[in-house]
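INTERNAL AUDIT FORM
Audit reference: QA-55
Scope: verify that the stored structure record matches its stored sequence.
Auditor: D.O.
Record contents follow.
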Amino acid sequence: MTESQKMKYSENGLWILKNDEKYRIGLSEKGQDDLGEVMFIDIPSDVTKVALNDSLIGVEGAKAVTELTTPLAGNVVSYHEALADEPEKLNSADKENNWIVELTDVDEEIFHALSDEI
């Protein structure tokens, strides 16, 4: 990671990577363990803004069916659209594959209050 990047983790199994003004959110190792192998997802297609604890994505895994909620509020820049056809990307350890959404206009204090450890 570069100086402009910072990684945090939420209690509900998500990682958050700050890269300059963008915040990319994905499924952490803890989230993968909690869900088991992801088999199906439901990505909202028309969301442009999320509030704290809004649903990001519906996930069906081997161990659980759940809604993953956002640990941050902000404007949605992009969803990882490839997940719609390849939900198994969320099973990957590679953060280039298992990300869900990118946000901007996030409250820095809320980001910094998140955990530094999984």
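Auditor finding: record pair retrieved intact. The helical segments are 29-35, 108-113.
Action required: none
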